[in-house]
Amino acid sequence: MNELQKELQVQLEKFRLDKIEPTAEHDDANASFKKEIFNELGALGFCGMTIKEEFGGAGLGYSDFCVALQEIAKSSVSYAVTVSVSTMVQGIIERFGNEEQKKKYLPELTSGKEIGAFCLSESGSGSDAKALKTTAKKVDGGYILNGSKMWITSAGIAKTYIVMARTGATGSAGVSAFIVEDSSEGLTFGKKEKKMGWKVSPTREVLFHNCFVPSENLIKEEGQGFKVALGGLDAGRVTIGAIAVGLSERALDESVKYSLGRSQFNQPIFDFQGLQFMMADMATELEASRFLVSKAAELLDSGAPDSKLCSMAKLKATDVVMKITTDAVQIHGGAGYTSEYPVERMMRDAKVLQIVEGTNQIQRVVIARHLKKQYQG
Ligand SMILES: Cc1cc2nc3c(=O)[nH]c(=O)nc-3n(C[C@H](O)[C@H](O)[C@H](O)COP(=O)(O)OP(=O)(O)OC[C@H]3O[C@@H](n4cnc5c(N)ncnc54)[C@H](O)[C@@H]3O)c2cc1C
User: Among 47, 60, 232, 322, which residue carries the largest CB count within 10 Å?
Assistant: First the structure.
C-alpha cells in the first residue's frame, strides 16, 4: 500500500468502527439500510473515487478504490456493495455518456447524495444476459419501456438506474442502454427480497409499465447497450474481488483471536495443529487473492485492462472467501453458528459474491475462452 492508500484505510477503519460496526448485527437482523451512512461515506469522498474531479469524483484509481472497499467490507459487505455498484454506474456514465448526461447525473452520485443501480438481469436471463426481454419502443421524443429486471441491488433506494432494454432484434446487437430516474412514470419496484445474506443491501425487482424515457437518456446509440453493460463488468468483477478480500481478512482475524482465547483440553485451541494448518491455509489463500485483485486493479489503472485477470481475481477471491468464512465458523465451533459472533453473518454474506457480476462458473467460461483464443488465435 502506498501512503495515500494507508491514509484512506486508516480513515475508513475509524469510520466503520464508529458508524457501522456497533449496529452491524442489529442492522443485519432487521435488514436496515441507513442512507445517512452512505451519505457520510460520500461526504468523505468514498462514493465516486474513480471518477474525474470535474464531475465531483476523487480522481483516484481502482487500486485505491479496492483498498477502500476491502476496509468497508470488514464491517459491512452490504455498504461496500452499495458503494461498488453505484460507482460502477458512474463509471458507465463517465465512459459512455455524453457531456450533458455526465453533468446532469454524475455530481449527485459522486457526492454520495444519491445512489446508482445497474439493471441487466431478468428472471429468464441471468448468466445469458443478452437474452433479455425488456423492450424499449421508439416513440416521439423518447422510448417506452416495458418489462422487468430481477435482483437489482439498491432498487428502491437508488435514484439513477442504468437499464438495458431491447430496441432491436434478438441477441446482443438489439440491446440499448438507458438512464432512468426513479421518479419516471411507469417505474415501480417489487418487494424487498428475503435473502440469505447482504441483508442490509436492499434487492428488488424493477418493473417498467409503459415507462417513458426521453431520447436524451439513451447512452451512446441504439444497439450499443450490451457493450455498455459489459464495459462496466471488468471493473465490477475486480471490486467484488476486493470486497471478498476484506471479508476474508476480517474472518481470519476473528478466527485467530477466538482460537487464542478459547481453551479445550487445557490449552488454547489455536495450539492444535489441526486448527493451525487451517488458519495457515486461510492466511495463504487470503494473500493469493489480495495479489490477484491488486494486479487486476493495477492493470485497470494502467489503461490496459486484462479481462481474463479480472475474471480470475473475482473467481479466486470469492471462492476463497466462501472457504475462509466457512472455516471461520468451524473454528468458532457452536458459538460460530450463532449471531453472537460475526462469522455467522460473514459466511452468509460471502455466498452471493460467488453469484453476482457473473457466477463463478461464468468466470471460468470467460477464462477458458481467453485460453482457447491464446492457443488457437
Ligand atoms: C443479492 C443479489 C444482487 C444482485 N444484484 C444485481 C444487480 O444489481 N444488477 C443485475 O443486473 N443483476 C443482479 N443480480 C443478478 C445476478 O447477476 C444473477 O443472479 C447472476 O448473473 C446469475 O444469474 P441467474 O441467477 O439467473 O442464474 P442462472 O444463469 O440461471 O444460473 C444458474 C446456475 O447455472 C450455472 N450456469 C449458467 N450458465 C452456465 C454456463 N454457460 N456454464 C456453466 N454453468 C452455467 C450458473 O453458474 C449457476 O450455477 C443480483 C443477484 C443477487 C442474488
Answer: 47
